[in-house]
Amino acid sequence: MQRLKNPQMQIPNGFFFRQPEINWDSRKVLGLHPSLDVLTNALISARTANPHQVGVHKWSLEFPIVRQEVEQFQVKICLANRWTKYLTDGGGGAPPPLSRSQSILNVKQLSAAAGKVKKLWAGVKTLNEWLDSEEPPVETALSEARAPTCIACPLNGKGDFTAWFTAPAAAAIKRQIERMQQRNISGTLDDKLGICEACLCPNVLKTKTPMKFIKPHLSDEVIQELKAGKDCWIIRELA
After folding, report:
1. Report field, pTM of the whole predicted structure over 0.70
2. Chain-centre distance of CA 99, in angstroms?
3. Which residue of 6, 10, 164, 210 sits 20 to 30 Å from the alpha carbon of 146, by its own alpha carbon?
4. 138 phi and psi angles, rounded to 5 deg
5. Which domain does 77 fall in, by range?
């Protein structure tokens, strides 16, 4: 079995994965050039959200197994395009055995990782939909009223994006903020807004987003986590 020579090196056009049975294409969710690990977690999340199809197709939800699937998908692309320099020499041999740390991953850990990825990319999609629509932000008075709620909330996570997200997600959020700045959208409290630990969205963007873009992507789980914060404005506006 051939493998990627360097799993950290992107192939031309970047790593991606398609699961046509559930109409899932990583490029629509993650954008370009995600790492194999990010891609694997996102695929697990997509499968977890479709338990019936998991049963029908007997898909794995275990990280080491799904990662091998993801890697072999890239190998097939390389073979089809004769990008042999990205592959190991020779075609024989089984993949190396899983390490002990990989083999003892349990369902609870995998579910937690999949849940985080699902929340993260739901947030990215929410903000992309607003920015792509070219619709204006909420009225300044509303965004300025939302911001202090986030600042006072214990879920207002501190630190830059790299402390919270993998490189692809951090890059996606950075691009979103750059797009906001290009449209001259700002607030007086922006420098005090961090990452919401419930929905994993940058509050500097979320506080300016119209509710009609937020509501469709709120899961019951995220709503419950927002309720655990301090008088969340999202919960107030939903009511």
Report:
1. no
2. 26
3. 164
4. -65, 165
5. 18-103
